[in-house]
Each structure stands twice: as structure tokens, then as C-alpha cells.
Amino acid sequence: MEHTFVLKGNFIYSQDEKHLKLEEQGYLVCEEGISGGIYRELPERYAHLPVTDHGDALILPGLCDLHAHAPQYAMRANGMDMELLDWLNTYTFPVESRYGDMEYARAAYGQYAEALRESATTRACIFGTLHREGTLLLMELLEEAGIRGYVGKVNMDRNSPDYLREESAKSALADTERWIEESGRFTKLRPILTPRFIPSCSDELMRGLARIQRETGLPVQSHLSENLSEIAWVRELCPKAEHYGDAYDKLGLFGSNGRAVMAHCVHSPRKELELMKERGVFVAHCAQSNMNLSSGAAPVRTYLQEGLSMGLGSDVAGGYSVSIFRAMSDSIQASKLRWRLKDEGLAPLSVEEAFYLGTLGGGAFFGKVGSFEEGYELDAVVIDDSRFLPPHMLSLRERLERVIYLSDERDIVGKYVSGEKVV
Length: 423
Ligand code: GUN
Ligand code: FE
Hints:
CATH class of the largest domain: Alpha Beta
Oligomer: single chain
Distance between the termini: 20 Å
Shape: globular
Bound molecules: guanine, fe (iii) ion
Strand order of the largest sheet: 3-2-1-4-15-16-17
Number of domains: 2
CATH architecture of the largest domain: Alpha-Beta Barrel
Largest sheet: 7 strands, mixed
CATH topology of the largest domain: TIM Barrel
């Protein structure tokens, strides 16, 4: 049977936010892409399956990136001295406009897909641009790279430059429906409705997207309460909305018709959080981008305490790194600064919590993903950390901590997505 095998090695995964499950030299059973659980001794009933022995390497669940912009990979680390709105106008919009040119799109998306293939990421929620054909090409290249998850054709029909704006709400919706139909040919990537953010979408466009969501059940991704000038702008644009989240909610795009993931939530007021919890809206916590664009440090401790659904996002290219290990260490560091400088009542993130957010926490957006417990889709990355092992013994937990801070793509020696070996 395809995608049925056993992996041997040192397993680390999250039991919950606070606790790791560690199994030294254990056996992980994969049956048709689904985990059959981890065993200290391989049960007799699995003795006939092929075993891949990964020796002393660490085997972790594949990492989940809840928020990234594929077209911006080509401009990562540029404009990092600006805040959001200036950065969008000066760097982002001109680069995104290039993706109407399929030759450019193939070259640039090819680089991004290759970077994701080489990374520890197995699942992602990704923005394309407003271009339908370019976005289909992105889906094709990501499928080839073995990545699973969601890709969105961006919608933007107002407050955007002439060279990067949809003609009308009507044409944007027609184009979106055509793109959804055409993306039916992909098996690993699914479409996700993607209004860029409130300032760039008319009410007519938003209501149309809400209708498409009711008809198709597709999820939604967007941005929320990221940066102070953006939030002030939304207040001007939507004077009747109680808060930024309410502006989405009044238009039917805040989890009332299906799943939604909102990036950033750095400055979300309490009422916004309460509504997110009520609607099951996911937070994509993008610590590096929030530092680069001087947006702030999100109160992740509050979100954990309130029991919000949450995962990590690279936000390429507000973030310059595709690595979700890097997102884990950045989240820990940002939370320490927030704790020391802003609110000593909100304790910083632990290694366990950051690892949870990058695996099981974000994985929940994709279904049963982010764990090796029986019944979960089998996404795994195999890390050879021998390059930075010291001469003394380390526990598996200590080795995981060093992987989070020290590893890069050189150290990834195997990768499985839904039981399919992609590296
Ligand atoms: N808000 C609207 N568009 C964007 C974008 O491309 N990146 C970030 N970080 N925030 C946004
Ligand atoms: Fe973003």
C-alpha cells in the first residue's frame, strides 16, 4: 500500500500547549497517510511494514505557516525601515503588480516554492496576488513542492493604485468564481477567499465574497488590527463598526459562514477577541513581521489564556524568513520584550508553547494536523542536529530547543506530507 510504512527515531510532538510528548528510539506507524500512533516496541501486526530508520535524528510534526504572501518573497528584507501603509505603497504593490507577467511569476513563485520545499513547513495559508492565472501557477508550483493547504487569489477593488486594483466588485467576483472552478484540478492546495484587508475592499465586493463563502463553504483569510495607522483608517472607513473585526463581521466574513484566519491581531480590543472566540476565528501570530514593520508585539499570552485558536505565520515578506522555527523563536523573544516593557502580568511564551503554536495550534486550521497521535494526517520532518550537538549529553527537550534556535534547511534530512515523502 502506498504511504504505509514505519519510521524509527526520536519523536517529539505536543500533547497540549504546555506539554511535550517525547519518545526516544520509538516507532511511528503510518497507514495510508494517517498516523497509527507511536510505539516503544513495534507491534507484531505491523511487523510486515517497511521500516525507515532515521538513527539518532529528531522527528517532529511538519510545521504550519498560517500566513504568508508568496509574491512578496521576491522583495523580502526590503523596506524594513517603513511601517505598514508606506511599505505597501512603496515596495509591496509595485512588486505584486509584476505577477500579471507569467514569465516573472514562474521565476519568482518557483523560488518561493523551492524555499518552502526545503523548509520544515508542510502546511500553509498563502496569499497570491489579484492575478487569477498567476495564482493558479503558484498553486501548481506548490503542489509540485509537496506543500498542502490553502492559496488565495487576492481581492482588492478600492484604495489601491491603478496598476494593482480590480476593475469593479463585479469583475473581481466573477474572476474569483472562475479561479475557484479552475483550481478544482489541484489535490493538495485548496482555494481560500482572500479579501486583502478592509481598506482595499468595497462593501459590494465583501458581500459578494460572503455569498461565495455561503455557497462553497471555503475558508477566508485576511488581516486584522495589525498597525495603528491602518486601524485608524478602518475606523474612518467604517464608522458604524464597533471595532475592526466587527467591520468584517457586518459584511459576513468573520467566521459566521465558515472558517476564518486573521493575521496579526496586535492591537485587538477585548470585544474583538470575544467575537473571535465566539466565531472560532484563528489568529495567525506573525511576530517577525510585527517587529519589522514596527506594528508592535501581540499579547499572545492573553490569547492563550482566553483559549483562542492560534498558530504562527511567517508573513513573508513583512517577515523576511519562511522558517516557522524562526517564527517560534521570534515569538518567544517578542513576548519577553512585551513582558518586560509593557505588561509584566503577561508571562512570555515557553518553548513548549511556541512549538505547540507552530505545529498543533496552527495545524487545527487544516483538520487533524500537527500531531503524531493516532488518526492525525502524517506530516513529519526529520532533523539531523549533529552539526550543533555538543560533546555532552542533551535531553530530547534540550535538543528541540536548539533546533528551534539554531537549525536551518541544511539540517532537514526528510519530510513527509500526508504520508508522502517529499524530501
Ligand atoms: N495588510 C494588507 N496587505 C498586507 C500585506 O501585504 N502585508 C501585511 N503585513 N499586512 C497587510
Ligand atoms: Fe500579511
